[in-house]
Write a structure and sequence with these properties.
single chain, 95 residues, mainly alpha, 3 helices, 75% helix, Phageshock_PspB
Length: 95
């Protein structure tokens, strides 16, 4: 009698409970790895802020170069230089 009661608890636990537990956590991990709407909104705001800050830097550099013709910007831009390790080291040395 006791063996039958134990079997009625153990068998459903092994064949139903354990797979459900594993699949439940796999599903949670997969949904946690995706971007939520809040994450996407935050990334859009950060991109917009970075774009505005870059525009401001361009404006400041333009104003400074008007006052001082020998001024040259020390940041890498897509139009002027490659993003190579050599250029990054050169910029770090000039700081």
């Amino acid at each position: 009698m006791e063996d039958a009661a134990i079997a009625l608890v153990v068998i459903p636990t092994i064949f139903l409970g354990l797979p459900w537990l594993i699949l439940h956590h796999v599903t949670k991990w997969k949904t946690a790895a995706t971007l939520t709407n809040d994450d996407e909104r935050m990334l859009a705001e950060m991109y917009e802020l970075a774009r505005r800050l870059e525009d401001r830097m361009d404006t400041v550099e333009r104003l400074v170069s008007q006052d001082n013709p020998s001024f040259s910007p020390r940041r890498l831009t897509h139009e002027t230089e490659d993003y190579t390790a050599e250029n990054i080291r050169r910029l770090e040395r000039n700081r």
